Amino acid sequence: MANIKTEFLTFDACYVRGKKDLYVAAKKLEYDPSKELLVRITRGGICGSDIHYYQHGGVGDFILKHPMVLGHEVIGETVPNDGSNPVKVAVNPGRQCNNCEYCLEGKSNQCLDMRFFGSAMRNPHVDGGFAQYVAVRADQCIPYNPAIDEDIMAFAEPLAVAIHAVNQAGTVLGKKVLVTGSGPIGALVIAACKAAGAAEIVATDLVERNRQLAIVMGATRALDPIKADLTPLRSGKGYFDVSFEASGAIPAIQGNIDLTRAGGVMVQVGMNPGMVDLPLTRMLAKEIRFVGAFRFINEFTTSVQWLEKGLVDPRPLLTSVFHFRDVVKAIELAGDKSQALKIQLSFEE
């Protein structure tokens, strides 16, 4: 017997089918309004993983096997079926099972049955949020003050990643902090560290524009890791209490071991699919705690609150906004790191 609660909706979405194969096409959504909320998407940010799917047809071991809707940095407004007024919401792209051992331990980012927007990890793949509508559970919708500009709130997901990284360090209050890699995530880590009370934040990046951005986002200093003399920061078994590696570059990971003081914390945020040659002897001798940072847990709600309160202003990261029907132009620009930082898509007609 058919489920009489099921409803259908057809609209347009941004599909990636393989390397350099991205297009807008109709999507048919089947959902149960008794269990899910319908959200009309208004804005979405293009992430590095979206760029990887477009440029390479996959991310690491997750290879596209069929067309998939991209996108996981999205906001919108609810479409009530009871006559109530729509509510502006930031959409948490992770739908954890809430039943596995990790979910029950409060580690939902490690869920054994996670369904994350725009991910080819599962087959069939999980469609993302670059669509005119999505259906999600109520706990994935975080209401926010409609007076907050969409340019700002569309950063809720990447800021949540940054806040989770800071939480993985334990605390940065009063600490000397290093952030290597000052792209969008690194810059948000810098802003999160400043908001969390870091005493000093030194950023590094090979690109001058990114170093300038790091200062705008709250860094005390921004250095070129190749040209700058880092000897004083390595002396005495390292200068920094906490280091965040946001580039995924192997030399940066290796270098942070010397720059992080004995007994300090290294948080790995950037990802590199290749094997990393870590000088473990130096790390062990200095008793450095090396910890990964993957996605977020309840930091998504914290991120929305921080953006509402103005604790972090992400607008310096925003390069341009494209209409979603121009998604190919948008993602081409987003993939040119010499020209763009964060590109957003508008889903307003």
Give a written overview of the molecule.
The protein has 349 residues and is of the alpha/beta class. The chain has 2 domains: 7-155 and 314-346, Alpha-Beta Complex (Quinone Oxidoreductase, Chain A, domain 1); 162-292, NAD(P)-binding Rossmann-like Domain (Rossmann fold, 3-Layer(aba) Sandwich), CATH 3.40.50.720. It is built from 11 helices and 20 strands. It has helices spanning 48-56, 101-104, 150-153, 156-168, 184-195, 208-216, 231-234, 250-259, 280-285, 299-309, 327-334, and strands at residues 7-18, 21-31, 37-45, 58-59, 62-63, 68-69, 73-78, 88-91, 94-95, 115-116, 133-136, 141-143, 176-180, 200-204, 221-223, 240-245, 260-268, 289-292, 318-323, 342-346. The strands form 5 sheets. Strands 3, 7, 8, 11, 12, 19 and 20 form a 7-stranded mixed beta sheet that branches. Strand 1 and strand 2 form a beta hairpin. The radius of gyration is 21 Å and the shape is globular. The protein starts with 6 loop residues before the first strand and ends with a strand. The relative contact order is 0.15.
Which descriptors would you attach to this protein?
Rossmann fold; 349 residues; alpha/beta; 6-stranded parallel β-sheet; single chain; Quinone Oxidoreductase, Chain A, domain 1; 2 domains
What can be said about this structure in brief?
The protein is α/β, with parallel strands linked by helices and 349 residues long. It has helices spanning 48-56, 101-104, 150-153, 156-168, 184-195, 208-216, 231-234, 250-259, 280-285, 299-309, 327-334; strands at residues 7-18, 21-31, 37-45, 58-59, 62-63, 68-69, 73-78, 88-91, 94-95, 115-116, 133-136, 141-143, 176-180, 200-204, 221-223, 240-245, 260-268, 289-292, 318-323, 342-346.
